[in-house]
Design goal:
6-stranded mixed beta sheet; 6 helices; alpha+beta
């Protein structure tokens, strides 16, 4: 698959709540990074297995139901895409609708993700999840069950 096709496939897997499939798109030694990570939030997850474990319970936190906007930008490097997207769904614990925007800088190695830098607003996510403590607990294991 070409990088643009991989982006579409990744979003389809997210909508299907197939987190194992989504994590399976990473290279074995791929990296997921969060440059704007909130205090207590992991800034980096390394390796496909660690990414799979990290994402495992994501649908129990945020039930993504649709991608409401998506723009894919090509860069001078054909292996790197910048993806702007907005997703909407339900914050599971609060049963509250949400809409969050993200910018992802994704580096591909063939048909695998080598590096995924996920730029999102921790403040917006904290509001959706009920506060900073809930956000931190949700993504560091304290809120996973």
């Amino acid at each position: 698959m070409q990088p643009r096709e991989l982006v579409d496939h990744a979003l389809d897997l997210l909508l299907k709540h197939d987190m194992a499939g989504f994590a399976g798109l990473w290279a074995e030694d791929g990296v997921l990074e969060f440059p704007f990570a909130a205090p207590g939030y992991p800034p980096r997850v390394e390796g496909r297995d660690a990414i799979r474990e990290y994402l495992r319970d994501y649908p129990n936190l945020l039930d993504i139901r649709e991608v409401t906007a998506k723009t894919v930008h090509e860069t001078a490097d054909p292996a790197v895409l910048v993806v702007e997207m907005t997703v909407a769904g339900v914050a599971v614990a609060a049963q509250k609708p949400y809409e969050l925007s993200y910018v992802a800088v994704i580096t591909f190695d063939g048909d695998e993700i080598r590096r995924y830098r996920d730029y999102w607003s921790p403040l917006a996510a904290a509001e959706v999840l009920g506060g900073v403590d809930e956000l931190t607990a949700a993504f560091t294991g304290g809120g996973r069950g």
